[in-house]
């Protein structure tokens, strides 16, 4: 099979290679997916650069956890009826050497989720990390029904989904922070009631103005390392900040606002969702997809041979939306 891989850590153009590797064979409880699309996420870039660990986790890594394809073989214990199913994948490269940047991948059967017929193939490569991260951030702790929600980075791969999902799941008001007029239009089209420009406006003051001084009930945060202090200002007493990302490894937050306002901080990484939480998120996402309720912002579609370019786009943050690679 054709596959992209790296055997040492470093810059994309220095370490990523495309070549032929043996086809994998599904073990008991596994399915084999003939991949059509592979999704590139910031975590793929960080792993390849060695930002989490300076040591190669395996001698060779085929990157990317998100993908879409068709099941073409099953292992013992998996119904043969699953052969031919269109599916999307989650956690394909998490703790494993074999992700989705290739023509075939073997996974546990539950990691290949049926993709509704009306959903475009490439959308399936955007669901495992961006969509599930957004949905869990909206669903946890009883959800957002009746609440005012601020989505930081409301035009990004996760934020764009979070804006939509918050509205679909009953938020009374959705505010999105963005950096440009183009991104503001993306957020508004996704359902944001208001947008604030975090680079050119006083963020806390604008949110106070929009909420009549009350603050927001839930803040979904893409970079708590940068925004943590101002997040505390924008939350109402008893409000909750749900953080799924940080550009800083160490956080420094003022203690007094946290305790004086009885604020809650919640952290999660989508790779480690509890089975029950993942099941709820997958089922909810499937219903949304079946009903055609979601917009999907795919910013770039490239060939597998262009994987280095795709990684550089994600690393630089030069596109607003998802980056996917055509594999099959």
Note down, in words, how this protein is organized.
This protein has 328 residues and is α/β, with parallel strands linked by helices. The chain has two domains: 2-128 and 276-326, Quinone Oxidoreductase, Chain A, domain 1; 141-267, Alpha-Beta Complex (Quinone Oxidoreductase, Chain A, domain 1), CATH 3.90.180.10. Helices cover 30% and strands 26% of the residues. Strands 3, 4, 5, 6, 7, 14 and 15 form a seven-stranded mixed β-sheet that branches. A six-stranded parallel β-sheet has the order 10-9-8-11-12-13, with helices on both faces. Strand 9, helix 5 and strand 10 (194-197) form a beta-alpha-beta unit. Helix 3 (127-139) crosses helix 4 (157-168), helix 3 packs across helix 9 (275-290) and helix 6 packs parallel to helix 7. The longest helix has 16 residues, at 275-290. The radius of gyration is 20 Å and the shape is globular. The protein starts with a strand and ends with a strand. The model has no long low-confidence stretch (mean pLDDT 97).
Q: How is the secondary structure organized here?
A:
Layout lengths: L1 E4 L6 H4 L1 E4 L9 E11 L1 H8 L16 E9 L11 E4 L14 E5 L3 E3 L12 H13 L8 E5 L4 H12 L4 E6 L2 H10 L3 E4 L5 H8 L5 E6 L2 H11 E9 L11 H6 L3 E4 L7 H16 L7 E6 L3 H10 L5 E5 L2
Parallel strand pairs: 8-9, 8-11, 9-10, 11-12, 12-13, 14-15
Antiparallel strand pairs: 1-2, 3-4, 3-6, 3-15, 4-5, 5-7
Helix pairs in contact: 2-10, 3-4, 3-9, 6-7
């Amino acid at each position: 099979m054709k596959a992209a891989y790296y055997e040492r850590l470093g810059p994309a153009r220095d370490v990523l290679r495309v070549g032929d590797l043996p086809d994998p064979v599904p073990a008991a409880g596994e399915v084999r997916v003939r991949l059509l699309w592979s999704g590139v996420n910031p975590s793929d870039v960080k792993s390849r650069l060695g930002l989490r660990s300076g040591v190669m986790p395996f001698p060779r890594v085929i990157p990317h956890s998100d993908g879409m394809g068709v099941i073409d073989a099953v292992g013992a214990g998996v119904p043969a009826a699953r052969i031919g199913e269109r599916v999307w994948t989650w956690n394909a490269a998490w703790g494993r050497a074999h992700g989705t940047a290739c023509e075939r991948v073997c996974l546990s059967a539950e990691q290949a989720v049926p993709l509704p017929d009306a959903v475009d193939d490439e959308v399936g490569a955007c669901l495992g990390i961006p969509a599930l991260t957004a949905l869990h951030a909206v669903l946890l702790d009883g959800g957002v029904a009746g609440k005012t929600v601020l989505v930081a980075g409301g035009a990004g791969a996760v934020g764009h989904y979070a804006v939509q999902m918050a509205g679909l799941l009953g938020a009374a008001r959705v505010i999105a922070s963005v950096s440009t007029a183009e991104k503001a239009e993306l957020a508004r089209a996704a359902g944001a009631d208001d947008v604030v420009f975090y680079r050119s406006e006083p963020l806390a003051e604008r949110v106070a103005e929009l909420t009549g001084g009350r603050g927001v009930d839930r803040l979904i945060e893409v970079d708590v390392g940068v925004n943590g202090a101002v997040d505390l200002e924008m939350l109402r007493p008893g409000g909750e900040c749900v953080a799924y990302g940080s550009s800083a490894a160490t956080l420094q937050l003022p203690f007094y606002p946290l305790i004086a306002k009885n604020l809650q901080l919640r952290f999660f990484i989508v790779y480690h969702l509890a089975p029950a939480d993942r099941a709820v998120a997958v089922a909810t996402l499937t219903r949304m997809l079946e009903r055609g309720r979601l917009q999907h912002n795919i910013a770039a579609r490239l060939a597998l041979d262009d994987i280095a370019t795709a990684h550089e786009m994600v690393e630089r943050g030069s596109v607003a939306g998802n980056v996917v690679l055509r594999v099959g």
